[in-house]
Amino acid sequence: MDFAAQLPAYRVRAEQGLDRLVPAATTRPARLHEAMRYALLGGGKRLRPILTLATADLFARAGAPEAQISNFKSEIADALPAAVAIECLHTYSLVHDDLPCMDDDDLRRGRPTTHRQFDEATALLAGDALLTLAFQLVGQHYAATPALCAALTREIADAAGSEKLIGGQMEDLLAEQKADATAADLEFIHLNKTAAMLTVCLVAGGLCGGATPAQLDRLRTAGRHLGLAFQIVDDILDATADTATLGKTAGKDAQAGKTTYVKLHGLETSRQLAREHTDAALAALALLPGDKTFLTALVGSLTGRTS
Amino acid sequence: MDFAAQLPAYRVRAEQGLDRLVPAATTRPARLHEAMRYALLGGGKRLRPILTLATADLFARAGAPEAQISNFKSEIADALPAAVAIECLHTYSLVHDDLPCMDDDDLRRGRPTTHRQFDEATALLAGDALLTLAFQLVGQHYAATPALCAALTREIADAAGSEKLIGGQMEDLLAEQKADATAADLEFIHLNKTAAMLTVCLVAGGLCGGATPAQLDRLRTAGRHLGLAFQIVDDILDATADTATLGKTAGKDAQAGKTTYVKLHGLETSRQLAREHTDAALAALALLPGDKTFLTALVGSLTGRTS
């Protein structure tokens, strides 16, 4: 199966998992569960759960030879609940970011944001509930593999915590309030707000597939570079693509006076940086076992949009 | 050591744990960690972590005889990180409840609420970060006891989730908007908003101390009745005590037209219900091993305030 057929197949697995593992809209309190499902099931590329599922499949297909050769003992399990948990976290962060006290956005993926569709209090609680649901899913669905459950809790909570996802969001808010954000500030924001969550997608998939500690380190390296490449490409597209191509308002960053890679380094250097991080991500993936065709194509499709 | 000496000793253990296990205010982003510590370290009775620590001590002191007799194998560990995790969850729920889109409170324990001291966006993120920190603490500090780590994740996430803590909060908001909340509505709110979190304090302590499944069931029964008694007593005090005694504005519930036990059942029946739930909690605790003097006195002090 080639990439163009595999991608929608993975997306269907992710969508089905989301629909099945999130409480029904009729569960009491119905309004809260309706809002959670509205935020979660309204489309989206499902990039994060697809990364988790595809990474787990890498190890399952490879028969995890390294794990068998060494004395390393690992528990393996279906990666779908972990993939859904990470998408719940990603979605909660969007719901809270859209609130009036944050970015105050009315639209998300062409539909009213959760607080516009329901109300602010409901959106706040739905975000809180999606965050908590991530850990309910990990706790419930990996009960039979406690070491895996503990490792997933640790990795996912760390990636979502005050020094990573939320810390990056806070620094992003602070950077908007000052004109002189530095390259170091920008890297802090993107490493934590974007790369940490993409990294934990790969790591969670690796954990579920039975990756060794050395393989998990390679996944961390790949995730870090993928996250930075992904963000630099976003900055380049905002500066160069027209609104129709982008599907959202182009040039928003420059208009808002926002510090971006393009503003700090110029277009040519940004393109060079994006290529370097993409190559580094692919080089780390190449060291892993199994059939890397899909993951390699996925990384290419995410980071190669500027050529 | 008697209750009057033990209570402050437990409180000191809880305070020291909070100070030590929550990231320093200088950790980047400093503003976020300052807000988290401001919300968490500004006083409070520390009821929840004290319940967790005292329950764990019950089993440690008893030498967990039931666990030794049966084939039940359990991992035991220091309950302090779990106690701190639960206090982080309790605090996040207060920070988010105080926000303008929820209760819009300016004061909490005599100090400006977190969003008044900082700003709304910072308070929102600090609440998110405290919620996430609860699971970081469980993931990090119970890594050496993975089955315990997995059980704590499951129990704590479930108690904090959309059908318990957050669900109770949502139903509470909905009940304020309708005049005809029923006794069943009220019980749903208190079972989930109050009792579920008090129950998980006892259960987490029991898990850390090595309680058997049967003992955990007794702790669940005790927590459920303790939570309901606690809430009924709160309603009685709001209707009967004067503002000076209460330390907060008395009669607020009646003024707000809020459905309470006193409004639904009258003062005498409410007192009777509080006594019945207190007795049921104490009866469940009496079936546990170890020296129950402190826990019994604590339950009495929490629920005996109406006599």
Brief sketch in words of this structure:
Chain A has helices at 3-21, 30-40, 47-62, 65-69, 80-97, 114-117, 120-141, 146-160, 165-176, 183-209, 213-240, 243-246, 252-255, 261-286, 293-303; strands at 107-108, 111-112.
Instruction: Provide the CATH topology of chain A.
Output: Farnesyl Diphosphate Synthase
Oligomer: homodimer
Radius of gyration of chain A: 19 Å
CATH superfamily of chain A: Farnesyl Diphosphate Synthase
**Spans of chain A with pLDDT under 50 lasting ≥5 residues?**
64-72
Number of helices of chain A: 15
Task: Give the helices and strands of chain A as they follow along the chain.
Answer: HHHHHEEHHHHHHHHHH
| DSSP strand content of chain A | under 5%
Task: Label this structure with key terms.
homodimer; Farnesyl Diphosphate Synthase; mainly alpha; 72% helix
Would you give an account of this structure?
Chain A is mainly alpha-helical and 307 residues long. Chain A has a single domain, classed as Farnesyl Diphosphate Synthase (Orthogonal Bundle). Chain A contains 15 helices and two strands. Chain A has a two-stranded antiparallel ribbon. In chain A, a hairpin with a 2-residue loop joins strand 1 and strand 2. The longest helix of chain A has 28 residues. Chain A starts with a helix and ends with a helix. About 3% of the residues of chain A have low confidence.
